[in-house]
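Honest question from a wet-lab person: if I give you the sequences of every part of a complex, can you actually get the arrangement of the whole thing, not just the pieces? Trying it with mine:
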Amino acid sequence: MPLLQFSNVDYSYPSGESDFIRALYSVSLSVERGEFVALVGCNGSGKSTFARLANGLLVPDGGNVTVDGMSTSDKNALFDIRKKIGVVFQNPDNQMVTTIVEDDVAFGPENLGLPPQEIRERVDWALDSVGMLDHAKSGPFRLSGGQKQRVAIAGVLAIKPELMILDEATGMLDPDGRREVLDVVKQLNRKENMAVVMITHFMEEAALADRIVILDKGHVSRDGGRELFAAPEAFTNAGLDLPLYVRAAQKLKARGMDIGCPLSADEFTDAVVDALKKEDRA
Amino acid sequence: MRDITIGQYYPARSIVHRADPRFKLVILLLYLITVFFCSSFFSFGFMTFFVLITVFLSRVPFLKVLKGLKMIIVILIITSLLTMVFYTDADATPLGEWWIFKIYLSGIYASIKLGWRLLLLVLMPTVLTLTSTPTELCDGLESLLSPLKKIKIPVHELALIMSIALRLIPTLIEETDKIMNAQKARGAAFESRNPFKKIKAMLPVLVPLFVSAFRRADDLADAMDSRCYRGAKGRTRMKVMKFHAGDVFALLFWCLITVCILFLKYNWLGWNFITVLGL
Amino acid sequence: MIDVRKLSFVYSPKTPFTTQALFDIDLKIETGDFFGIIGSTGAGKSTLVSHFNALTRIQKNSGTILIDDIDLSAKKLDLKKLRAKVGMVFQYPEHQLFDDTVEKDVMFGPKNLGLSVDEQRERAKQAIGLVGLNYNDMAERSPFELSGGQKRRVAIAGVLAMRPEILVLDEPTAGLDPIGKREIMELILNAKNMCPTVVMISHNMDEIAAYCNKIAVLGNGRITGVFEPKELFGSEALLARCGVELPLVTELAVKLSRAGLDIDRSILDEDELVRAILDLRSENNA
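Yes, you can. This is the full assembly:
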């Protein structure tokens, strides 16, 4: 049974006086345990409602969202659903409930009704996993954006969910902060085998995932593995911008030099060097 | 605006930090009431002595404590001066006269006592918030008020509201600053005399602030729900409040201080002899 | 032009909690510059820039700032005149929107300048067009029902309506997706026709490299140096001293160079990089 399943989900929300904006229509996809999925789409693609539909903050107008078989439309199941799915939102300032880091991370386990000693252990473990154990007694005002988001991740981790959804969690961070968060996420997926759904509009972030789902105007336009990067048009058609090295690779290809689709600066370098060597030998 | 010490926790290991928040709150209440019973200079000094001991025991640098007084210093000076200037004592001769104001010796004494009282009233709450995390305070309050649940008062929700307010107030203050700067950069002037104009001038700040506050509240509610919040049902705490003999002792000690102050005020058992010069 | 001489700034002066934010800053921003200010968080960039429109007043004996003929250390400043000359767009400027309609919100600046309602409207119309929005569509709409990108444009229009000669921007593309970022930068370039001088604080080295003709690096409240982009990004020594990262395009050039290819390490433009790589190929064939 998939951990998270969207079946023909439709969702619209009101806009202005009488209009409705259709955010998602007929969206079907499933996420299995341990997967690392990137959900990409530009603004208006519907990706911003995905996270809230996944954990029942929003309920679909049509179709069904189930978590391990439990439907998000079932109010009584929401508590158990949210034990399995954790969401880290975009704004680092609006997720902290209290003014002390360790108290905030404890908020989740406290809601679960765990015994105090276990909460303490989980809090320490979660903070250690994100590298914020030294700041356990700090307040939000002395933390950088990246640090606050790591605390938010710890707060979700402490519940020990099986799937963590990052809803554009790096959107408001500076380059250092983004790196911190992405490193933590990669590590969590690898070491703790935590399933991750990373909702983003940065292709560099999507490149970290094993599976990429492209949302275009509310509908799934592509759902596949890293082979999707071989045809970057799928991304531009969905309104996404390609990272520099992919654009440069496309320009080179247009002039007869095919270096494939590099997904990082290093891949680009290696590909260019290889291509030139090949031409040398030719 | 960064120096709002009320609500700022100063982490340290001290007896005061470790004390049970429920006892701290009760002692604070007792203290605040007692401060109003201080009448003679001796009683003021008596209270101050024990407050200073508390500050010392809390291991918070004195400078930090003083920071919390920064905000009321101006109010303090103004009210003291006003008291001194407007105080009238029919039985005494004025020390000095200036225009229509007469300064009496008893007026000076009264203004000093007023200032001192204000100081004491702010000092202890400052120490309290420096040595207790907002979560501790709210948990303590929730626990103390829990008997009220029997008459259907939503104690948990109220404590949560307080806790979130303490969390968000500094953030909102910072945001107000930012919004004011943005509007000032567009030529807005907030220094109008006309009260009508002044309110109108505040709209460009109040509207964005409210919008922002509601957005934060929405976001925070989503984050809380996502972390399995469902009210007080089944909720436990990481930091369990357990009181110790030390807490009981502290409470009894402060009760004793209250009793002493009452003795001094009402001259029971002729305690007034301690006060010098009947001050 | 902005002439900063020996500017210093101290928080909470004369108290035990005092901290110095700026130390003897000397800086000249010429008319027509697209001037970048970079530095790590806390280096003092925002503090420096907030002096330019007197949101922060110069402290006693703490240097001077001359903006054309306005002396910012004078006791009496015509704030309206100054703030009409120096327009400032803060981070996440959409948070300042407040009025019932887009047009009214953009008119706020001109209104504060004391212009007639017709002039206010005229300026609002021009500014809304300048930021790439359709006046007829947008004018009567509530700013709160717009998308994030549109809100930001309206907020910037609100500042452009003051017709500033100097436009100061603090992280104008913060929080936007890649396409949004590009659109805002194009908007700014567009606006530069009206405001000859632009000062931009940014963490985004790609933008700094692509648009600025001069870059000031701030570190711990001091100016580490003022450089031209090729000068700064082409020198590893300078970069290390300034604690600054490379723009992505330059990083690629450096990596290729380290891999043994003969490539100019200070390339700042994507097309230049592509050409340089293709040149290598034809060299091999020759």
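Two things worth pointing out. The mean pLDDT of chain B is 84. The first strand of chain B starts at residue 96 and ends at 98.
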